[in-house]
Amino acid sequence: MALVLYASKTNKNAYKARVAAEYVGVQIEMAPNFQMHVSNKTPEFLKMNPLGKVPVLETPDGPVFESNAIARYVARLKGDNILYGSSPIDYAHIEQWIDFSSMEIDANISRWLYPRMGYVPYPPLPPLEEAAISGLKRALGALNTHLATNTYLVGHSVTLADIVTTINLYLGFKEILIKSFTSEFPHVERYFWTMVNQPNFRKILGEVKQAEAVPTPPSAKKPSQPKESKPKAKDEPKKEAKKETKKETEKLDEEEEEAPKPKPKNPLDLLPPSKMILDEWKRLYSNTKTNFREVAIKEIPKFVLDECYDMELYEWTKVDISDENQKERVSQMIEDAEPFEGEPLLDAKCFK
Ligand SMILES: N[C@@H](CCC(=O)N[C@@H](CS)C(=O)NCC(=O)O)C(=O)O
């Protein structure tokens, strides 16, 4: 009997076993006509996984659920175990990175991404998003350090640790980890792009593109409008709210298969809200006789202090023109193509 994997074709958790199968040369069939939220709620499916979650692998010896367990099973199916290391310490390290990437990377990406994709209510308490981001940065920092001196996570070739970790990074890179975020972790970047471009990954994932913007949460959650005008029973609004907050992964599958994704917007949305009306400030700035040099080199004029309502969000530093690095930084911020040399900047403006 062939191995049959129950999941939608874009289920990222199922990718773990599917990529592993490519490496070890095991055939896995995707369950035909699988329909998320329908097929996985049937009594037959619930016998395989009582939670009704995917993926589930049907094997000649019975079903297996939990994507990491399925991937381990597939990786061990062939005797000459290229994915599973060759010593007890290799096995331990492979398990270590599988657990690490599931608990520290996948979990934090989900906590950050799913509310922004509307899979769980938004806004989350801001500290929760911050905690997810800082937990993720901490994990990526550790991974980055390891990868600074290692091509692969364990040993000198791809193991299941690389497959699971790369798939756990995949959703992040694809949906929320924009370049300015990942560039802090150059070894993770190098590793991720190398892995997803390996033929065995490419066959399953196709071409991977990095997110260009952090998804904007669904319009700061407008209160949901009941579809019908019929007056509702007392407990129905609650039901509506519950329905809206579909379980995160459940909706992710559906979304990936059926609906266009919410359009990601500007990464600046991550900043705290500002009372400052940028256009007004720019107008004021352009119309005044005061020029950039005065702002940047001399002192911050009083009108800027008066007009810039959210001063506390900015760090104002007097440029030290004897410092080449600072000069270069200012040069990059202004429209003038000339290098920063004080006087030539009299007419230049910032805010490209
Ligand atoms: N830890 C599980 C997560 C499984 C999971 O949450 N699957 C989602 C789809 S990605 C699902 O089936 N959701 C349906 C539900 O929650 O009822 C695994 O790695 O397999």
UniProtKB/TrEMBL annotation:
CDD domains: GST_C_EF1Bgamma_like, GST_N_EF1Bgamma
Pfam name, any one: GST_C
Region: Disordered, residue numbers: 212-272
Ranges where the GST N-terminal domain occurs: 1-82
Keyword Cell cycle assigned: no
SMART domains membership: EF1G
Signal peptide coordinates: none
Domain GST C-terminal: 87-218
Biased composition annotated in UniProt, kind: Basic and acidic residues: 225-250
Domain EF-1-gamma C-terminal, chain residue ranges per copy: 264-297, 298-352
Entry keyword set: Elongation factor, Protein biosynthesis
InterPro entries: EF-1-gamma_plant, EF1B_G_C, EF1B_G_C_sf, Glutathione-S-Trfase_C-like, Glutathione-S-Trfase_C_sf, Glutathione_S-Trfase, Glutathione_S-Trfase_N, GST_C
SUPFAM superfamilies associated with the record: eEF1-gamma domain, GST C-terminal domain-like, Thioredoxin-like
Role summary: Probably plays a role in anchoring the complex to other cellular components.
Subunit structure of this chain's protein: EF-1 is composed of four subunits: alpha, beta, delta, and gamma.
Family: Belongs to the GST superfamily.
PANTHER family per the UniProt record, alphabetical: ELONGATION FACTOR 1-GAMMA 1-RELATED, ELONGATION FACTOR 1-GAMMA 3
The name this protein goes by in its record: Elongation factor 1-gamma
Source organism per UniProt: Stylosanthes scabra
